[in-house]
Amino acid sequence: xxxxxxxxxxxxxxxxxxxxxxxxxxxxxxxxxxxxxxxxxxxxxxxxxxxxxxxxxxxxxxxxxxxxxxxxxxxxxxxxxxxxxxxxxxxxxxxxxxxxxxxxxxxxxxxxxxxxxxxxxxxxxxxxxxxxxxxxxxxxxxxxxxxxxxxxxxxxxxxxxxxxxxxxxxxxxxxxxxxxxxxxxxxxxxxxxxxxxxxxxxxxxxxxxxxxxxxxxxxxxxxxxxxxxxxxxxxxxxxxxxxxx
Length: 245
Ligand SMILES: Nc1ncnc2c1ncn2[C@@H]1O[C@H](COP(=O)(O)OP(=O)(O)OP(=O)(O)O)[C@@H](O)[C@H]1O
What we know:
This protein is an alpha/beta fold. It has helices at 40-48, 90-100, 105-118, 134-146, 164-180, 192-198, 216-221, 227-244; strands spanning 2-11, 14-24, 29-34, 55-60, 63-64, 75-78, 152-156, 185-189, 201-206, 209-213. It folds into 2 domains: 1-74 and 152-212, Rossmann fold (3-Layer(aba) Sandwich), CATH 3.40.50; 83-149, no CATH class. Helices cover 39% and strands 24% of the residues. The strands form 2 sheets. A 6-stranded mixed sheet has the order 6-7-8-3-9-10, sandwiched between helices. A hairpin with a 2-residue loop joins β9 and β10. The longest helix is centred in the C-terminal third of the chain and has 18 residues, at 227-244. The radius of gyration is 19 Å and the shape is globular. The chain binds adenosine-5'-triphosphate. Adenosine-5'-triphosphate (ATP) binds next to α1. One of its GO terms (molecular function) is ATP binding.
């Protein structure tokens, strides 16, 4: 479905992406774990067409993406800060992509109502974005993205600004909706728990080089991801609290 082959990028002679290759099938979520500055955002921007690669090829559903401009790639790029139109209601923000595609009004009303129900936003339909919490705003931006049925969803630390509980709720919502609509996604995060929760496939990006893992077990056990040592830490805390309780 998505095939990335030998992608490289430099900024002022500094390599930022080094020979990146991977393939994703329809409905898969590639969770890419990486520290700040590893090249995550540059990778997503190249996929979205917002940045040009120096070398390599991108194919989506068999189509060479090289000549395809960003607005024709049918991808949605979601950031930490949801980008909403401040002067439009929640309903109209979600409806926007359908309106510009000239979808019939009755069809828009139905699709948007269904999406608002799915995202538990029905009671907020007539509010403006500034009348919502951060988690609610992020749900609206999800609704806007999903309603146009993107071929690929690009998520750049989308829940990084949310508190732990809201973040966990959003991860579950993302899982439910992306499974239901069989959405193919690339989800970059520096949080290993988040990667394990949302991913069906796993990668680790370090200094522009991507390691892909064949299984969750390999991802967890790889010393570079540091997940094994994090798990060991929590186990040692549990043991200490058991023996002192
Ligand atoms: N337009 C640019 N010009 C020059 N250097 C850039 C440019 N964009 C990114 N870089 C450099 O490329 C490297 C990777 O940047 P990128 O934004 O992809 O990192 P990141 O992994 O998304 O980091 P973070 O998680 O901190 O956002 C950094 O060293 C950055 O300084």
